[in-house]
Write a structure and sequence with these properties.
Length: 354
């Protein structure tokens, strides 16, 4: 071991994750139980259902992570857990599990911000993966998830300055809502990506909300426009009077592409502009929407023109997982931080101020 081994727990939303991470970087195990199938029926997350599912899965996932890493609590140096932002009932399952482990085994306890976890996923290495360069400071990070969309500048570890954020919906939320409009099911993000890949004409145009020079984002107008554009496509296909009849697949593909193109266009343009303004030496992309291949490719292409390296975790580390919490926790541990057994869920915990 070249540094502390942290047991990290994530249960803020709809994934139950437990990981063992060495030195904030090397993943020894990372087990995630996803509730996606459970929430597909309701087309979204029902908090009460999510909390119960975390309770059902937290101990099997914990056992799985310990077994995969081949360790016992005697090998673990600290216990970390997401304490916000997120759903209170879901957060409490992870928090109480972490507190119990820390207390019974007399290990330091650390509270980690979920959004900071998404950011620190950029430092993670899979088991056996070759060493690679770490993100360099100052960096600009775009975090795009189901609940959050923001740009942040980091001049050092754990130092965040908010550059801009969504003034209404999160990017992932827009993907989920438009996915529903296009009858693509839940979650919308991966389904829209898949549908968009089948587009041939690439001529659907969705509006972009640039909001002047600011680094803020707005996606609610896009959702309204999507409703109008989908309605027009249905009329054109003669489906106005048949609400149960789906749009032809070819049409869905074009609209999915047009929507994805509008979202990625704005996200990438603002990230690049922020990176230039901050004199960034690297760009980090994180959060569930960072799993989107169009967004990844476009950001990498735009940053290459500026010769700024981009660090994007593999898709499985962009969506919620325990390892990202372990990565951030290592820096909190090194800074001497310790949470008490009074650690509580902070559903609206902010990451940074402007
Ligand atoms: O970070 P995450 O797993 O959970 C939150 O903290 O919210 O993000 C989930 C979001 C969902 O809105 C989902 O639709 C979106 O990430 N997402 C994607 C893709 N994979 C997941 N959006 C676009 N393209 C994808 N491939
Ligand atoms: Zn997340």
């Amino acid at each position: 071991m070249s540094g502390p081994l942290i047991l990290a727990i994530e249960s803020s939303c709809d994934e139950t994750g437990v990981a063992l991470v060495e030195n904030g970087r090397r993943i020894h195990s990372n087990v995630v139980a996803s509730q996606v199938a459970l929430h597909a029926g309701t087309g979204g997350i029902v908090p009460e259902v999510a909390a119960r599912a975390h309770l059902r899965w937290i101990l099997p996932v914990l056992d799985g992570a310990m077994a995969d890493a081949g360790v016992t609590m005697a090998d673990v140096d600290a216990v970390a857990v997401t304490h916000g932002p997120g759903l209170a009932g879901s957060l409490l399952v992870g928090i109480n599990t972490a507190k119990t482990l820390a207390w019974v085994h007399d290990r330091p306890l650390l509270g980690v911000n979920h959004l900071e976890g998404h950011l620190y996923a950029a430092w993670l290495l899979d088991p056996g993966q070759e060493e690679m360069e770490e993100p360099r400071f100052p960096l600009v990070a775009l975090i795009v998830s189901g609940g959050h969309t923001f740009l942040v500048e980091m001049r050092d570890h754990l130092q965040y300055r908010l550059l801009g954020q969504t003034v209404d919906d999160a990017a992932g939320e827009a993907f989920d809502k438009v996915g529903r409009l296009l009858d693509l099911g839940y979650p919308g993000g991966p389904a829209i990506q898949k549908a968009a890949a089948g587009a041939i004409r690439h001529d659907a145009v969705f509006p972009r909300a640039w909001l002047g020079d600011s680094f803020d984002f707005s996606f609610s107008g896009l959702k309204t426009a999507a409703r109008r554009i989908v309605g027009a496509a249905r009329s054109a296909a003669g489906l106005e009077a048949q609400p149960d009849e789906p749009l032809p697949g070819g049409e869905v593909a074009e609209l999915a592409w047009g929507f994805q193109d509008a979202v990625t266009d704005v996200l990438v343009a603002k990230t690049i502009r922020a990176a230039r303004a901050a004199g960034a030496r690297s760009i980090v992309l994180g959060g569930g929407v960072a799993a989107n291949s169009a967004l990844r490719d476009r950001l990498v292409g735009a940053a290459a023109d500026l010769r700024i390296p981009v660090v994007i975790p593999r898709p499985g580390l962009c969506t919620d997982n325990g390892a990202m919490i372990g990565a951030a926790a290592a820096w909190r541990l090194a800074a001497g931080e310790r949470a008490g057994l009074d650690l509580d869920a902070r559903p609206s915990l902010p990451l940074a101020a402007r």
